[in-house]
Amino acid sequence: MDQRGLGRTGVEVSRLILGCGNFGGVGSAPAFFGRGTSMADAFALMDAAWDAGITTFDTADAYGGGSSETFVGAWLATRSAAVRDGVVITTKTYNPMADGADRGLAPERIDRQIDSSLRRLGVERVALYVAHEFDPDVPPEVTQAAFDALVKAGKIGAAGASNFSDTQLDAALGSSVRHGHGRYEWVQNSFSLLDRGDTHGVLARCQADGLGYTPFSPLAGGWLTGKYRRGQAPPAGSRMTIRPEPYAPYHTDAVFDALEAMEALAVEHATTMAALAQAWVLAQPGVTAIVIGPNRVEQLQQALGALEALDAAGSTIPTAVLDDLSELFS
């Protein structure tokens, strides 16, 4: 699988990044800790991802209340030294590890959280460490100084930002210049056909300043797979039955019109809606790689198909089709 340099980090990431947010929970939500992907299924996903050439695994301290990092660490412990050395781990901090626990990017918390992450992962260093949210209570220069100290201590390779608005990213980058700290070298935000808010803000800034961009949720919580149908109840166990609030704005006739037209395009080109959606994100200028969060190996295969379709000679997903998708969801 193609590897690409991530900003100025000196780290290469696979074009598909395995998102481990559902290992042992559903993201960072304490209400769902203990649910999500089991350890056995997580191992199967990591095996399949590695075998397919996916070298980059994305987790966070709060995913599953620590379960995600624990699963990744347990998998690494059973693999050869060559595999352990070849996996690029991204982990993150900001969110609370349990109901009522602290959160944020204060230096003392960052120091505590990286040490706990390294223990769960069973490693001495992670290549990539991410501020999982912007912390309005801690000046950017204070957080960035803490990340710089971790780089100097050999605990992380570089720092990035996730869930930052363009204003927050501007503040952080400006602070780096003023105070002489290492900057955030890449951004990881939500981005899809249904969520294009970064296009003229964060993504444009990343392109202008040479930052990497590794968006998550290219399928918009499953909406771009065709699983949600006009006038039908959502499938049992789907995100719209577990945590529907982030996706409520999509429940409109205009979105269903676009989805139905997208399904027709997928049939015409002998592919899936999921492959089209992921191929569209991968094809956008400035996108380094995408974070995919499959729950099953067959869902991973769909993402691999999207990448293969773009990379193959005589692509099975022509540029004109991707342009049509942009128009459908504009």
Describe the structure.
The protein has a domain at 3-188: TIM Barrel (Alpha-Beta Barrel). Helix content is 41%, strand content 12%. Strand 6 (126-131), helix 5 and strand 7 form a beta-alpha-beta unit. By secondary structure, the protein is α/β, with parallel strands linked by helices. It has helices at 39-51, 67-77, 81-86, 107-121, 140-152, 166-179, 202-209, 239-242, 253-268, 273-282, 297-311, 319-328; strands at 3-5, 12-14, 16-19, 56-58, 88-93, 126-131, 156-162, 186-188, 212-213, 290-292. The strands form 2 sheets. The protein has an 8-stranded parallel β-sheet. A two-stranded antiparallel sheet has the order 1-2. Helix 4 packs across helix 5 (140-152).
Global mean pLDDT: 93
Anisotropy-based shape:
globular
* The CATH homologous superfamily of the domain at 3-188: NADP-dependent oxidoreductase domain
Rg, nearest Å:
19 Å
The top level CATH class name of the domain at 3-188: Alpha Beta
CATH-defined architecture of the domain at 3-188? Alpha-Beta Barrel
CATH-defined fold name of the domain at 3-188 = TIM Barrel
Task: Give, in order, the helices and strands.
Answer: EEEHEHHEHEHEHEHEHHHEHH
Number of helices: 12
Portion in strands: 5-15%
Distance N terminus to C terminus? 31 Å
Helix content: 40-55%
Give a nutshell description of this structure.
The chain has a domain at 3-188: NADP-dependent oxidoreductase domain (TIM Barrel), CATH 3.20.20.100.
